[in-house]
Specification:
Blueprint lengths: L1 H7 L14 H19 L4 E2 L2 E2 L1 E4 L4 E4 L2 E3 L4 H22 L2 H5 L2 H18 L2 H9 L4 H26 L5 H4 L6 H21 L1 H7 L1 H5 L10 E4 L1 H4 L5 H6 L13 H4 L20 H12 L7 E4 L1 H4 L9 H22 L4 E7 L6 E2 L4 E12 L9 E8 L5 E3 L3 E3 L4 E11 L7 E9 L4 E9 L2 H4 L1
Antiparallel strand pairs: 1-2, 3-4, 4-5, 6-7, 8-10, 9-10, 10-14, 11-13, 11-15, 12-14, 15-16
Helix pairs in contact: 2-5, 3-17, 5-7, 7-9
The chain binds iron/sulfur cluster (2 copies).
The site of one iron/sulfur cluster has 14 residues, from helix 14 and helix 15.
Length: about 450
């Protein structure tokens, strides 16, 4: 808890993370740039004229993978959110904070863009520390202002890229989006800038809820970054080893490379700490030291408490079984529902306060509101012509205005169903209203009230 101890006295220790190279940093680089390409690229991709993924909040629509979801499709959104939550639980129980280390936007932007920019302008760890010792000097101002200017550019780009999942990026990036959209973009750009320029690892330590509850999702079989105490301790520098030749030392030469590269500002050798984001920088650092010093193996690695205490690695455990089963059920439910999903969403509701009426020509009339949502095609496509027909009511006729629904829009119209009095034989008759367009056909159930006693 080194960071927390440093910070509870009200004074923040700035973290000057040193540069490190290694296999986990390569993985980080690849995963980071793939995720950033996803963030920037996906809002520009369209399938069948619809965005690959966009939350149209004013239009209350979600476009995903070529389909359009409306509020009537809330079940799909709920299933997706549950899938995301249990997916995170499942992977956390197996691989610990792998999300934090390799996929969290905070980590990705900081490690792949902001720190490289910082190093480019202010130099590596030693130079940055020296620069901050000359606080408010001309050189300090010049380098800090240059860094902040670049962070601001990145913050604006990041916030516009995020907003591309809510607003058409062709409008956003050309200044043609709404003022509201730019107000939101400005707010997030400021928040990102503040994070890049100052807040940084404190976000993980104090604001991120996932960091708080991930301890409850892991067990002694979960993968974590750990210091191999049995191999490494008692640690000792070369000097200490020379000074105490009779003492038994462990393999750790106390070079502190693992500490200087840590972006969370902690010493992993103090044991498991909530601040650790499992980024593997200390693992790469110690692997480098182990290679140079011919140590039999690195003293820090991705491992589990069970493996460290010589117990067998178990993939199947109560929590992985529970999370895995829930995930499987969610996937099956989602696929089944998607398989039976229609491009037309239809609801039929009786006009409130009405049951039936008898027209002058003796026909019995029931009136309804029919709402048709067209989830087929893009927003600027041709409207669909809707036809309706009653099935299951002998002699029924439908009285409705012409119905046309533009893609991604809904239309609500009054619809009357008339049935000859001599064709009805019970007080309430169930029927199906078939709603057709040239691309889909949907049936919704309804009931027809006859008031039979009064009629006969
Ligand atoms: S990098 Fe390895 S050898 Fe150096 S202090 Fe850390 S654990 Fe010890
Ligand atoms: S202790 Fe190691 S894995 Fe944890 S945040 Fe620091 S460098 Fe990353």
């Amino acid at each position: 808890m080194a960071v927390l101890e440093q910070q509870t006295d009200g004074h923040r220790e700035w973290v000057y993370a040193a540069r490190v190279k290694g296999r986990f940093q390569k993985i980080h680089r690849w995963s980071g740039w793939i995720l950033m390409a996803f963030l920037v690229g996906v809002p520009w991709i369209h399938i069948h004229g619809r965005p690959l993924l966009r939350f149209d909040l004013p239009g209350r629509r979600l476009y995903a993978l070529g389909a359009t979801f409306t509020p009537q499709d809330a079940i799909y959104i709920v299933l997706l959110l549950l899938f995301a939550a249990f997916g995170l639980f499942f992977f956390t129980s197996l691989y610990g904070r792998i999300w934090c280390g390799y996929a969290c936007p905070q980590t990705v932007f900081l490690e792949e863009i902001i720190r490289p920019l910082e190093r480019w302008i202010q130099g590596d760890r030693g130079r940055r520390m020296a620069l901050d010792r000359k606080k408010f000097s001309g050189e300090w101002w010049a380098k800090k202002l240059a860094s902040w200017a670049l962070y601001a550019v990145v913050a604006v780009a990041v916030s516009l890229a995020f907003l591309g999942f809510f607003e058409d990026p062709r409008l956003l990036w050309t200044g043609r989006a709404s003022r509201g959209a730019y107000a939101v973009a400005a707010f997030f750009a400021f928040a990102w800038f503040w994070d890049f320029a100052w807040f940084r690892e404190q976000f993980c330590n104090y604001l991120c809820p996932y960091a708080r509850f991930q301890g409850a999702l892991t067990d002694d079989q979960s993968l974590n970054v750990m210091y191999r105490v049995r191999l490494a301790e008692p640690r000792g520098t070369k000097k200490e080893r020379k000074a105490h030749p009779d003492q038994d030392f462990g393999l750790c030469i106390d070079c502190k490379k693992c500490v200087t590269v840590c972006p969370a500002g902690i010493d992993i050798r103090d044991g498991f700490q909530l601040e650790c984001i499992a980024c593997g920088r200390c693992v790469d650092a110690c692997e480098g030291v182990a290679a140079r010093m011919n140590l039999p193996e690195p003293l820090i690695g991705y491992t589990s408490l069970a493996a460290e205490s010589g117990r067998k690695k178990r993939f199947l455990r109560p929590r992985t079984l529970v999370y895995g089963t829930i995930l499987s059920v969610l996937v099956v439910a989602f696929v089944a529902l998607m398989g039976s999903r229609h491009d037309l969403a239809v609801t039929l509701n009786r006009v409130p306060g009405t049951l039936y009426q008898v027209d002058d020509d003796g026909m019995i009339r029931n009136t309804y509101f029919l709402e048709v949502t067209n989830n087929h095609g893009a927003g600027d496509g041709e409207p669909a012509t809707v036809e309706v027909e009653v099935v299951g009511l002998d002699g029924a006729e439908v009285v409705a205005p012409p119905i046309e629904v533009a893609p991604t829009r809904s239309v609500k119209v009054p619809v009357a169903i008339r049935v000859p009095a001599d064709a009805v034989h019970s007080r309430t008759i169930p029927f199906e209203l078939e709603v057709r367009t040239d691309f889909d056909r949907v049936s919704v159930p309804g009931t027809f009230k006859t008031g039979l006693e009064e009629v006969n």
